[in-house]
Amino acid sequence: MYPAPFIAVEGPIGAGKTTLATMLAKEFQFPLVKEIVEENPFLDKFYEDMEQWSFQLEMFFLCNRFKQLESIEENYVNKQQPVVTDYHVYKNMIFAERTLSKKHMDKYRKIYHLLTDDLPKPNAMIYIKASLPTLLERIQMRGRSFEEDIDPAYLKTLIEDYELAIEHLKQTEPGLPIITIEGDHTDFVSSQQDYQQIVQNIKEQVL
Predict the structure, then answer these.
(1) How high is the mean pLDDT of the chain?
(2) Residues in the active site (predicted)?
(3) 139 is in an annotated binding site
């Protein structure tokens, strides 16, 4: 933990992480660091054949997030400056545990810890919780071509995985404030009241 807030916004695919992170960065005048997604050259292949392309996909994400965390450490954490991101690096383990074979997962876990254990972690987290119908609706609305082939069963398991991951973080990082947003009933884009409630929660629990 460090004095300046390092806020991560998390949730399953389609939950609205980047949208909310962008809104909050503007609200508090904090720099925003967004994860690299569409630039991943393995995304299309992964959604067509997860077993074949999962390791390449996850390694690309891990290496890019590692470089971003290095930059966050240098430009914000070491200077005690605030920052907002639309992901927590622990999401790498959430996705990898679901998609990688045991053989690949054993290798991946070693690389993950080697790269990230000595890098800064968020000292506050916003978790957008949402059901499968909500995620599917939002994914369809944003119209990313590579997401057209997402298996709803895969999304369903991600929802469950995120719930387990959040509980894991609560146990392993008991001092980490986690603000949970019920995405099925909270419209932070269209409802100013809903959005301001999130802002107020952050002011009370983080700032």
Answers:
(1) 91
(2) 86
(3) yes
Catalytic residue among 44, 49, 86, 106: 86
86 is catalytic: yes
Q: Tokens 């996850």 label which residue?
A: 58
Cα(11)–Cα(125) distance, integer angstroms: 10
Tell me the domains of the chain and their CATH numbers: 6-205 (3.40.50.300)
| 90 secondary structure, DSSP code | T
| Mean pLDDT of the 108-133 span | 95
Q: Does residue 27 or residue 42 have the better pLDDT? A: 27
pTM of this prediction? 0.89
Tokens of 157: 């398991």
Helical H segments across the chain, by residue range: 17-28, 43-48, 50-72, 91-99, 102-116, 132-142, 152-172, 192-205
